[in-house]
């Protein structure tokens, strides 16, 4: 299974952030990437850099018969098509596509692509939509499901239950 995280908090060529995520999914399909499942789009507060607009996030499960580096290149091309220009880390953006997991492969070190994505377990805005489309998926390193990781995040935040954000589409 290949899992991608999508996020946007600025309008782009396709319109509002939720429209941009829909545009990204359409571009994936046009690029020969099969989108097997798509989560709801969820509104969430910014992570990493405060003082920016709320994000719209989601996760897609895809099938692509390319190595992870080629998939990363395709994802970055889709980001550019949507109007993304690289800027401040964790800052506002038109579109961000992260490879969360690529068939359970673990890659650390000198590669430009770390697998699984190193922040999955800490981000409720990824875990909420991930549990929607892949509740039985297990993190390749910690062995936990999205629900188990989400419970840990909520415990750290002092929250017993409740979603990370509200559905937007």
Polypeptide structure, described:
There is one protein chain. The protein is of the alpha+beta class and 169 residues long. It has one domain (2-167): Alpha-Beta Plaits. It contains 4 helices and 6 strands. Strands 1, 2, 3, 4, 5 and 6 form a 6-stranded antiparallel β-sheet that branches. Helix 1 crosses helix 2 (68-82) and helix 3 runs antiparallel to helix 4. It is globular. 36% of the residues are buried.
SSE succession: EHEEEHEHHE
State the share of residues found in helices, binned by percent: 25-40%
Radius of gyration, CA atoms, in whole angstroms: 15 Å
Our measurement of the CA-to-CA distance between the termini, rounded to an integer number of angstroms, reads 24 Å
Secondary structure class reads: alpha+beta
Largest sheet: 6 strands, antiparallel
| Poorly predicted sequence stretches spanning 5 or more consecutive residues | none
Tally of individual domains: 1
* Broad shape: globular
Full CATH superfamily name: 7,8-Dihydro-6-hydroxymethylpterin-pyrophosphokinase HPPK
Report the top-level CATH class.
Alpha Beta
Mean pLDDT: 91
How much β-strand is present in the residues?
15-25%
Helices and strands in order, then pairings?
Elements: E1 2-8, H1 17-30, E2 34-38, E3 42-44, E4 55-63, H2 68-82, E5 96-102, H3 124-133, H4 146-157, E6 166-167
Task: Please supply descriptive tags for the structure shown above.
169 residues, alpha+beta, globular
Short description:
This protein has helices at residues 17-30, 68-82, 124-133, 146-157; strands at residues 2-8, 34-38, 42-44, 55-63, 96-102, 166-167.
């Amino acid at each position: 299974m290949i899992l991608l995280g999508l996020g946007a908090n600025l309008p782009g060529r396709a319109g509002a952030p939720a429209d941009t995520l829909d545009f990204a999914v359409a571009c994936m399909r046009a690029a020969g990437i099969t989108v097997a499942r798509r989560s709801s789009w969820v509104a969430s507060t910014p992570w990493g850099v405060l003082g920016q607009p709320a994000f719209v996030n989601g996760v897609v499960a895809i099938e692509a018969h390319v190595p992870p580096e080629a998939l990363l290149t395709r994802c970055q091309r889709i980001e550019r098509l949507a109007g993304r220009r690289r800027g401040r880390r964790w800052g506002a953006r038109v579109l961000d596509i992260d490879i969360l997991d690529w068939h359970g492969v673990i890659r650390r070190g000198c590669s430009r692509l770390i697998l699984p994505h190193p922040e999955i377990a800490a981000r409720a805005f990824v875990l909420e939509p991930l549990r929607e489309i892949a509740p039985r998926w297990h993190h390749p390193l910690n062995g936990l499901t999205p629900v188990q990781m989400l419970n840990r995040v909520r415990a750290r935040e002092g929250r017993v239950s409740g979603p990370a954000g509200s559905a937007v589409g």
